[in-house]
Amino acid sequence: MDHAAALERARVLLAEAPRVLVLTGAGISAESGVPTFRGPEGLWKDFRPEDLATPEAFARDPRLVWEWYGWRRGLVAACAPNAGHLALAHWMLGRAGVTLVTQNVDALHERAARTAATARGGDPSPALPIRLHGSIARVRCTRCDHGAEGDDPVDATARETLPACPACGALLRPDVVWFGEALPLPAMQRADAAAREADACLVVGTAGAVQPAAGYAMAVVRRRRPLVVVDPGPTAFDGMAEVKLTGSAGAVLPPLLG
Ligand code: NAD
Ligand code: ZN
User: Fold this and answer.
1) What is the pTM of this model?
2) Mean pLDDT of the chain
3) Which atom of ligand 1 is nearest to the CA of 42?
4) Do residues 104 and 29 lie in contact, with contact meaning Cβ atoms separated by under 8 Å?
5) Does ligand 1 come within 6 angstroms of the Cβ of 235?
6) 3-class state of residue 47 by DSSP
7) Ligand 1, closest atom to CA 177?
8) Is 173 helix (H, G, I), strand (E, B) or coil?
9) pLDDT (tens digit per residue) in 38-54
10) DSSP labels for 191-216?
């Protein structure tokens, strides 16, 4: 199959599926310029993410970890959703039955949902993702169950200036999943339910090495439903894909979903 034929085949598979599970990873944000936090541009003051994105690091030095998240929030705020995020958001607002599960913490799906909904004069909620790894644009309390959207600048000059919980006064933390932490159970349950019901799966920009995310796509394949993969590189899903579209999300998703 040449690329045009593969694209058309994938279009039909996704259009004919009443329920579609979409799984996205870091690759969908690559064209927005979101740093990977793994390469050299992800280094901050010579710390590795593994040194800072842990509950132990936060317990030891919350000021340092908040200073790092403030820097990362600034990097992400300077980025914008790309054509891939926007095509996906418009597609989800224009049809029923799509569940989006993301491993990204950059909130670009959320921003694309709001942009698309504003353009269409509707509600963004059908295009909002299930966030397996949380969001750097959210906070939650280290003591009680308070959580909220929020990416205001953080004053990390001292322990005393860090954001405090409006409900109980304890320290707030970024609402992201750190190394060694469990994923949020409600997000996992919703993703699992979508994987058990989906009539097709679309995977964009994830190598498929991180569980349980990869397992949701694989569960759809085990039920003998078709899988479409969009990625410029090799992924763990390639051998089980009905259609592999080799290319970037920003180039492939608009013609695939538009
Ligand atoms: P990964 O790094 O394992 O895989 C990224 C995939 O994206 C690769 O297969 C690569 O070929 C592909 N890719 C590169 N450019 C692309 C493009 N323009 N369009 C489409 N695909 C492209 O990423 P992962 O599977 O998401 O797992 C990494 C982990 O790191 C996850 O746990 C994630 O939460 C975290 N992370 C998140 C962000 C973010 O929020 N944006 C960024 C980096 C890492
Ligand atoms: Zn609290």
Assistant:
1) 0.95
2) 95
3) 43
4) yes
5) yes
6) strand
7) 34
8) strand
9) 666 667 887 888 899 99
10) HHHHHHH-SEEEEES--S-STTHHHH
